[in-house]
User: Fold this.
Amino acid sequence: MQVPAQFEYAKATSVEHALRLLGKYGPESRIVAGGHSLIPMMKLRLAQPLALIDVNDLGELARISVEEHRLCVGAVVRHAELLASALVGEHFPILHDAERVIADPIVRNRGTVGGSLCQADPSEDLSACFAAVRAEAVIQGPRGQRVVPIREFFTGPYQTAVADDEMLVQVRVPIRSSASAYEKVERRAGDWAVAAAGAALRLDGDIVREAGVGLTALGAAGFHAPEAEEFLTGGPASDERFDRAGQIAAEHCAPVADQRGPVAYKRHLAAILTARALRRARKRWHGQRNGGN
Amino acid sequence: MRISVTVNGQVHTRDVEPRLLLVHFLRDELRLTGTHWGCDTSNCGTCVAWLDEVPVKTCTVLAVMADGHRVRTVEGLADEVGLDPVQEGFTACHGLQCGFCTPGMMMTARWLLDNNPDPSEEDIREAISGQLCRCTGYENIVRSVRWAAEREAGHAERAEELAREVQA
Assistant:
């Protein structure tokens, strides 16, 4: 029987209340929402926070909206809600591609977008998706709100830019194009990725004007592949160039061998999945959705 | 900490430790042992019960999180009239052997049918993809859910066909 160590528990009634509670309980307290990363870690005693601040009932953080040409996703939006949102699917199909293969439907009913990002697990899928589409994290603390580019949000495995007295309140993505896609290889339904790649494209005729490449479980700093993005930008959106971008992403990432596979296999997947995601994003750009939803 | 949780329509108030998991609250505090306790790691899904409107894995939810909320367990499926069609489907199509995964499977099946009254085999398999059955190979669970869908749509004959397939 797995039992967490003892802790104090408080239910927040607003963001300001949650921040006050964070101040009261100090750096050994943790924000909890879905709890599907934190509670298992507490059961294994890998985490022993002295206090949990429950933000599940904060309706103000549970909204998905478009404001000023940005898709805004509240931190407490459940994975299932992101997947069910037509607004999200219309603007960022990459997020729906990923959500279909994140954990399982029951876990997705409880786990939250903000929780997944704050866990900063190197194998977490949304991190690479949001990196590919250049999202921004809105962080709130006692001194007000600040905005951090998602690529600078992740400061290391299980580490983020959120300070002890702050909390993530929203992820927002500038709406630039709807051409994005995510490709993942997993050992079985609901498992973490062996490797995965996300792509976002903005084209001008046949020329790539902007490219985003996100990598999951491949040891890429900030969950993205800047060298591949740089290579793609300004060139033709051709299969050949996409394959080469995949190879560049594979060369520059830093996967580690584990029970999900050796390094060479993961690099192979990095190249293939990057190229595949780019092709699927291009197809969406051209509005040909048949064959690759 | 004092919490009040509405379980299957009835309010229960208890003093609990914040670290008590919802599955143990249901089983040990309320003696509702229909919700099973399995892997303890949110993988197997035998502990699935509804929190408000959706099924969740109760081994990964704190009982205190359910304070002021509604929970529905397998004991809340049947009403005074009789068994839920999902329960009848599992009976008619032999949807269980050892029965360990069954409460979780049925709670997910009820949720699926409430949201998608005519699910395809693929829809059903996707819905239960976070739940493990080591007996049936899932074939008869899928049939059982289809049986309930046919019954609720008023297609008694098609439901009977599904039940006969199992005996064949």
Remarks:
- The longest strand of chain A covers residues 193-204.
